[in-house]
């Protein structure tokens, strides 16, 4: 049955019908609801001018609040959720919210175009961390760009906003002074309304000739993908929506994976970690961090908070970009993926999924169910590197992840994943061969540098030259050696931030 989408918008229940399933939330807010406080800057998730908050029921009876980029959020993914725009932050007595008041006091706005986006990202932080540190603020604002104010006053506002009198109700802080969760009665009431709004079965949203199916179970998803092999799978839409906003492409029929609980599930046991394809990047990275804290910097530099909340690990893997950040690390970890077609499932080593860009091993009617990462073995050393022009919110020119399984000094196994140096994410098999079976020492590192430099023929593009990429691969192997040389104690401070801190 085709139905209207239902959501809470600034606390009011709305039904959305008569709009294409590829309509973005930003278009809906500005053009249909005249909520023009939310701005359009880049229309590709890069500048944060369109940031709004989405809230979903949390396990403790309250809400889970997170910022998203409205410009690349397709409407069908919001069914059953609550959306808050900057218009909703004004207090019931007409006063400014502490986030806004702090920005005014610290002179955190000039032309004001970016300000609603900053306000909403800061509101997301206000609900999560009390009081935020400068580091919390930098992470929370990594997806917001300001052309004129400069970031010092904005960061100052982030650190002073919780010192102002907290408002009542859902607009109040979500944590107490010790960082403990705080759920107001109004927030509980909103969560209850959302639970009542939630639908149990499959949802089909249709407009004209275009349909978005949103199955509720894995079985239903498998049937739906088999019945509609030409429909596109839509997870968070952080890749797919750019085809709409940047290329004006019709997406055709869509199958949204976000309602399938099995695809959201993350399970850890002695064998390793299983991550459902539709688990958000943020949850997936938190799960991987337990066994592999060496990857934290790569995950923290992956896009921005709103993208990590909306985007999924399955979307990153299935999108098959040669410069995707998760694949080099997952290849080094020996990850496998589980694919399903009808009732049949199969597993593949991740590196075997990528055939020739943009072709993958995915068959018509098949989809990605989960990513399986084996448990850590004793004696494993791992590092991952991302070289890009900007620290945050940038695409890698070169990505490299190296893992050695050591027995004493001897290298039992080497796995190396690379990005940005070939048409697909790749395993550096020649460099791995140069390492396996020998002692981990300077000569072995030199052999791996020679092998990896000869193994790839990268291209020159606007991010880097071919020569830079090849030399960067070699130098990163050397850096790995310096950081994991058993004769040195601990990591060397090899980043500018570490030396100048
Ligand atoms: C501003 C911005 C910054 C970004 N920064 C980075 C970055 O730093 N590093 C990086 O690697 N990426 C980055 N990305 C890309 C993107 O965010 C990621 O690739 C993200 O993981 C995609 O997930 P998604 O759920 O949004 O995928 P979607 O856009 O929903 O889907 C992506 C593709 O995967 C397919 N797909 C989705 N789920 C499945 C499934 N279960 N089975 C089969 N196919 C499926 C879709 O059909 C589509 O082709 C950035 C994007 C933006 C807009
Ligand atoms: S308009 Fe720039 S992130 Fe949405
Ligand atoms: S105040 Fe002008 S862009 Fe930020």
Write the layout of secondary structure elements.
Layout lengths: L4 E5 L2 E5 L8 H8 L18 E7 L5 E7 L12 E3 L13 H8 L9 H12 L7 H7 L10 H10 L24 H13 L5 E5 L2 E5 L3 H10 L4 E3 L6 H5 L8 E3 L4 H4 L1 E4 L2 E5 L4 H11 L4 H5 L4 H6 L2 H7 L6 H7 L3 E6 L2 E6 H4 E3 L2 E2 L5 E9 L5 E8 L10 E10 L2 E10 L6 E2 L1 H7 L6 H14 L10 H19 L11 H5 L1
Parallel strand pairs: 1-5, 7-9, 8-9
Antiparallel strand pairs: 1-2, 3-4, 3-5, 6-7, 10-11, 11-16, 12-13, 12-16, 14-15, 17-18, 18-19, 19-20
The protein binds flavin-adenine dinucleotide and FE2/S2 (inorganic) cluster (2 copies).
The site of one FE2/S2 (inorganic) cluster has 12 residues, from loops.
**Global outline:** globular
Termini separation: 59 Å
Q: Helix proportion of residues, in percent?
A: 25-40%
Strand order of the largest sheet: 2-1-5-3-4
Rg from Cα: 23 Å
Average predicted local confidence, pLDDT: 95
How many structural domains in the coordinates?
A: 3
Task: Enumerate the spans where pLDDT stays under 50 for 5 or more consecutive residues.
Answer: none
Structural class by sheet pairing and helices: alpha+beta
Assess the beta-strand content as a share of residues: 15-25%
Bound small molecules, by name, code or SMILES, are: flavin-adenine dinucleotide, FE2/S2 (inorganic) cluster
CATH topology of the largest domain: Ubiquitin-like (UB roll)
CATH architecture of the largest domain: Roll
- How many extended strands? 20
């Amino acid at each position: 049955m085709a139905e209207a989408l239902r959501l809470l918008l600034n606390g009011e229940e709305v039904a959305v019908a008569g709009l294409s399933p590829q309509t973005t939330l930003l278009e809906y807010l500005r053009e249909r609801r005249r909520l023009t406080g939310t701005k359009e800057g880049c229309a590709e998730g890069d500048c944060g001018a369109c940031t709004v908050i989405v809230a979903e029921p949390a396990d403790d009876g309250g809400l889970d609040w997170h910022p998203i980029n409205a410009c690349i959020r397709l409407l069908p993914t919001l069914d059953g959720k609550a959306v808050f725009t900057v218009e909703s932050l004004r207090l019931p007595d007409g006063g400014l919210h502490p986030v806004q008041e702090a920005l005014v006091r610290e002179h955190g706005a000039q032309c004001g175009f970016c300000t609603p986006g900053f306000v909403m990202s800061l509101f997301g932080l206000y609900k999560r961390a009390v009081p935020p540190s400068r580091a919390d603020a930098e992470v929370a604002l990594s997806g917001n760009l300001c052309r004129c104010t400069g970031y010092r006053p904005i960061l100052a506002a982030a650190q002073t906003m919780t010192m102002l009198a907290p408002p009542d109700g859902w607009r109040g802080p979500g944590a107490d002074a010790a960082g403990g969760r705080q759920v107001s009665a109004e927030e509980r009431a909103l969560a209850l309304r959302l639970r009542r709004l939630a639908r149990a079965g499959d949802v089909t949203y249709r407009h004209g000739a275009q349909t978005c199916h949103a199955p509720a179970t894995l079985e239903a998803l498998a049937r739906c993908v088999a019945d509609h092999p030409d429909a596109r799978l839509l997870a968070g839409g952080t890749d797919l929506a750019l085809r709409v906003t940047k290329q004006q492409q019709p997406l055709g029929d869509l199958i949204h994976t976000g309602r399938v609980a099995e695809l959201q599930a993350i399970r850890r046991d002695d064998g390793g970690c299983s991550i459902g394809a539709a688990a958000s990047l943020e949850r997936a990275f938190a799960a991987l961090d337990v066994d592999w804290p060496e990857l934290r910097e790569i995950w923290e530099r992956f896009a921005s908070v709103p993208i990590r909340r909306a985007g999924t690990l399955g979307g990153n893997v299935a999108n098959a970009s040669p410069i995707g950040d998760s694949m080099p690390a997952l290849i080094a970890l020996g990850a496998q993926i589980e694919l399903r077609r009808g009732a049949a499932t199969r597993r593949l080593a991740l590196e075997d999924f990528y055939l020739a860009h943009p072709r993958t091993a995915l068959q018509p009617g098949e989809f990605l169910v989960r990513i399986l990462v084996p448990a850590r073995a004793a004696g494993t050393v791992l590092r991952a590197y991302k070289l890009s022009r900007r620290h945050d919110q940038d695409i890698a020119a070169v990505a490299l992840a190296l893992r050695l399984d050591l027995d004493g000094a001897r290298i039992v196994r080497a796995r190396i994943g690379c990005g940005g140096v070939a048409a697909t994410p790749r395993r550096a098999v020649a460099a791995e061969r140069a390492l396996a079976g020998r002692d981990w020492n300077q000569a072995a590192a030199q052999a791996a540098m020679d092998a990896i430099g000869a193994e790839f023929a990268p291209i020159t593009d606007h991010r880097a030259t071919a020569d830079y990429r090849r030399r960067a691969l070699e130098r990163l192997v050397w850096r790995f050696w310096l950081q994991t040389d058993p004769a040195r104690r601990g990591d060397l401070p090899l980043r500018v931030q570490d030396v100048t801190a």
